[in-house]
Every structure is written in C-alpha cells, then in structure tokens.
Design brief:
It contains twelve helices and five strands. It has 262 residues and is an alpha+beta fold. The protein has two domains: 168 residues, Transcription factor LuxR-like, autoinducer-binding domain (Beta-Lactamase, 2-Layer Sandwich), CATH 3.30.450; 55 residues, Arc Repressor Mutant, subunit A. A five-stranded antiparallel β-sheet has the order 2-1-5-4-3, with helices on both faces. A hairpin with a 6-residue loop joins β4 and β5. α10 packs across α11 and α11 crosses α12.
Length: 262
Amino acid sequence: MIRNVRIGKVALPRTPYTPRRLIPLIEAVGAGIPLESVLTSIVNQLGFDSFMFGMSACPMLTHESQCYAYTTLSAEWVARYDQMDYIEVDPRVLKTRDSPLPLIWDSISERGVDAQTDAFLDDAAKHGVSSGFAFEFRDVHYVRGLMALNSIDPVLDDARRESIGEMLGEVLLLGTYFHEIFRKGVIDEGVPPLARGAPLSQRQRECLELAARGNTTEDIAFKLQISARTAQYHFDCIRTKLAAANRQEAIARGLAQGLIRA
C-alpha cells in the first residue's frame, strides 16, 4: 500500500441520514488515526477492492493548482500511472470529465477504443484495477477531484451493475465525506503533496519545454494532440513535483535543473 499524506483530525457532523457504514470513517478521522484500513473495510463492504481519490487544488491564494492523491492501491501502480501518462487515456477520467454523471465501467465495455486504451486496461488489470465506479466533483475553492472505487473483476454483469446502482447514494456520500475530510485535513492545513521531488514524465517534460518557448495551454494541447484540460493537469503535476507556485517558476526550475532545454 502506498504511503499516503497524513490527514489531521477533522470533526465531521453525524446526522440521522449518515449511513452506518460510513460512521467508522467519521470516527477515525475525528480521532486522527490513519484511514487506510477503515477505507478498505468500507470499500470491501461495498463490493470493491481498492479506493482512489485525486484532487487538483490551490493550496494558497498565491499558488496555482497542484495535484494531491490518496489511495489504497500500490505505490508501484501510482508511479507507473504517472510516468506512463495514463491520464490521457484513462476512461474513468475521460468519461467523467465535465459530466455530473458517475461512471460504472469494466475492462470489456471500455476495450476497443484504440491501442493506447487497451494497453492501459491491460496494465491496470495487472495492478488490480479491472472495473469499478468513478465520478468527478468540483467546488468553488478546489478545482476538480475524482473518486474511484476499483475491482479486480474484469466484467460487471447486469446483477452487479444493478447492485452498484442500488448503493449509489451511499457511494456518492463516501466521496462527499472524503472530499470534505481531505479539504479540511490536508488542503486547509497546508500539507504539501507527497509527489514533490518525483521525476517528471516524458509528457510533462514536453509540456514544460513548450511552455518555456512561449506556448499557451491551448497551443500545447494542439501540438501534442491532447485536450486543454489534460494539458492543464500535466502542469498541475509539474508544479507539484517542482514545488513551483506558478508556471513561470516551474519553467525557471526546469531550466535550472536541466530538465528542459533553453
């Protein structure tokens, strides 16, 4: 299991409508204890095997957005996902982008789009991500986030899809609660992302070098044949890894460290 950022104590209200299954999470974060085992238990009860939460957020008013992540998946998979730039082909990201609707998916239903997507699905399956549930959320302060519950099963039959649909409210509440936990216990506390100091991926280097040559986000997206949203995500990761407040500082650090050419 990957080492996650330590979340501080967070007091969350418990209402008569709070699902019983989520009460251990509220109690754990209120006591300031690690959440991985509690999350794993809740996720297993919901019929999944692993949990992933990612957020692009502005840690300070003087900083542009940076990337944060929390997961029960392996550190090997997290690093590989980043270095392979799977954000560009991950169906969970592409199909929930700018959509309020959640995604229920499996490896069979998403296969056949192109060779890159199939390669991602094959690689993800080796690391325990073969199907699951995902949805995107946003608020006025924290740019965007994604919660995904993953399963090792490559096929979700009709009965399993119906079961997930029946638990949909509880699953969405898990995402809502965890978003609030992460916002209060990490972002508001100024806890730095754990990705600081990690190596840039090939695509991130390309984006930074193009920016150093004066290209805008839209220019970079066009030249690399990716969406502007994806290009912006790459810059969120670049600023995170280089501990840069903005794009200009990231360019300066990239040049100084020899990561890109002048």
